[in-house]
Design brief:
Length: about 70
């Protein structure tokens, strides 16, 4: 089970686990993070999230999810 942090102020979806992505393609995106440092995304793809709220389960597909090992 992967844990995700929801950030409504984020500019991009970021993921540190390459195995969660599908439809992966090369990407080169430099991202400025909260501490003013920069990280580089090397790939992007889609990710399927399984969300549970109470007893209700839903699947949500995120697109344009960038893979960044350093997050």
């Amino acid at each position: 089970t992967a844990e995700w942090i929801l950030d409504s102020g984020a500019t991009h979806h970021l993921c540190t686990d390459r195995n969660l992505l599908f439809g992966v393609e090369p990407a080169k995106l430099t991202i400025k993070v909260a501490n003013s440092k920069t990280i580089v995304a090397s790939l992007k793809g889609s990710c399927l999230l399984q969300i549970t709220v109470g007893v209700i389960k839903r699947s949500i597909q995120l697109t344009n999810v960038y893979y960044c090992e350093q997050v």
